[in-house]
Amino acid sequence: MRVLVTRTQSASRKTAERLAALGHEPVILPLAQAQHHPDAVLSGMTRPHAALAITSAEALKACPTDSQVLRPHLETPLFAVGAATATAARALGFSNVTSADGDGEALSACIAQAAIDWSKPLLYLAGHPRKASLEQGLVRHGIPAVTVEAYRMQPIDYSSEEIIEQLAGKGIDAVLLYSAETARRFFALPIKTEVVDLFAGAQFFCLSPDIAEKVQEPFSHKVSIAPKPDEDGLFSLL
């Protein structure tokens, strides 16, 4: 299958490698690029906090690269939204990592179950834009939290001609959508008839129901939702 990957360039490369190993033909069309805010993360980490939370591995790229700066925080409990994000945290050196294997709501429930003294707040290394589910869940569970914007996603614009060139003028069989914002950006592209034709046979594979809701006509009847909200779940649809 020719599979369109719409993640950031670095994330898309990893996904493309997995797709190629499975015998698919990945086509990369990043719809956003991350602008990292390491100073904000460093400032947040220097304040007292009982634990860390991340909903994307992208936040880790804004963490201090100086090992001396990062070392005091590596044993701090870190709660990750899923297995891939947890793996990225461990690779950076964090040793006390828990994966919620779900979404922001599941992550807040996971944090609430932890035996932690919340006299100090949770430090949430967040992105923008983001869903409010984690922050809302923390409020419901009475967990004090400080949100630091670790990165901001900046959209990448394409003309119809650039999209056709990126797709090598050949049809796409499947489109992977990892977030509602990515889906919104995809359907905001200037898609002429020639581009629509390249997606005529495509299925849209979405990480969650809220993403599927963003798929517009004439493709809204060609949507599948991953059984689990992670990349393995998406790949199971291929």
Multimerization status? single chain
CATH class of the largest domain: Alpha Beta
CATH architecture of the largest domain: 3-Layer(aba) Sandwich
Helix content estimate: 25-40%
Strand order of the largest sheet: 3-8-7-4-5-6
Total number of distinct structural domains: 2
The major pleated sheet works out as: 6 strands, mixed
Mean pLDDT: 93
Work out the strand percent: 15-25%
Q: Tell me, what's the shape?
A: elongated
The SSE order reads EHEEHEHEHEHEHEHEHHEHEH
Helix/strand layout:
Blueprint: E1 2-5, H1 9-21, E2 25-28, E3 32-36, H2 38-46, E4 51-54, H3 67-70, E5 78-80, H4 83-92, E6 97-99, H5 104-112, E7 122-128, H6 133-140, E8 145-155, H7 160-166, E9 174-177, H8 180-188, H9 193-198, E10 203-206, H10 209-212, E11 223-225, H11 231-235
Parallel strand pairs: 1-2, 1-9, 4-5, 4-7, 5-6, 7-8, 9-10, 10-11
Antiparallel strand pairs: 3-8
